[in-house]
Amino acid sequence: MPTLPTVTQLFFLEVPHASAAARIAIWWMPQPDPQAPALLYLHGTFRNLQGNQHKIASLYAAGFSVLAVDYRGWGQSTMLVPSEKTILQDARVAWRELVRREPVPGKRVIYGHSMGSGVAVELASQLPYPASYGGLILESAFTSFAGIAHQVGFWASVLQAFSTEKFDSIDKIAKVHAPLLMIHGDLDETIPIQLGEQLYAAANPPKQWLSIAGGHHSDLDEVGKTPYQQALHTFMSKDLGQSQSSPAPATGTPTLQAQ
């Protein structure tokens, strides 16, 4: 497993207005360059931050300062049975911390993987662009929990734990006007690539799509390391801070589409 940067800091944030005393665990990895953009990392259902070290390390290697959060119910955060409400509440607490550490809105990025993509879309849809943030990155994203259940029977057991939850990204993505990068593996059996393509089609430009050949659900940064890093670098250098009407440029990578 990749080693996290030596600058990694672990600390805890209290969750205000929780029904009982609660806290969330935060990892903060600042870049040595103070001009580097800062990214909020929102993980998926199956792995906490410890299980996502390789993906977090890849984002840091691309040049982002990374603030990663374990929602309550995961990792070292307060244990409870999570819900869409508690996960979104925790994401907002983490976002306020990112804003405190990165004062320039155009250098703030929201990133979500798997279930975290639904959290990221919800958060982005509630924040004004460009006044609050500069871009959105979604990896292995879906349309909604209902869409996953329809496509993949395996998810029925997972969704029982979130029986009242929707994470309805397909109905919220239209409210997002920031530059968007979406990455998906063409062999993803957890969230089929068709669901990511449907969400991408519903999103506003500027937007970019990267399909990783041979990529599954959580290995895209490893299987497609070169195009993965190229897409992140392009997003960082050309898209952050752009007007919402500016098209995202193509990079020349055959699987990367820009609109």
Please tag this protein with its features.
single chain, 259 residues, alpha/beta, nine-stranded mixed sheet, 8 helices, 31% helix, 19% strand, disordered C terminus
Itemize the secondary structure elements and their pairings:
Layout: E1 9-14, E2 23-29, E3 38-42, H1 53-61, E4 65-70, H2 84-101, E5 108-113, H3 115-126, E6 135-139, H4 145-151, H5 155-160, E7 180-185, H6 193-202, E8 207-212, H7 220-223, H8 225-239, E9 256-258
Parallel strand pairs: 3-4, 3-5, 5-6, 6-7, 7-8
Antiparallel strand pairs: 1-2, 2-4, 8-9
Helix pairs in contact: 2-3
Number of beta strands: 9
- Strand fraction band? 15-25%
Main sheet properties: 9 strands, mixed
Task: Give helix and strand order, one letter per element, not per position.
Answer: EEEHEHEHEHHEHEHHE
Ends apart, CA distance between termini: 35 Å
The coarse overall form would be globular
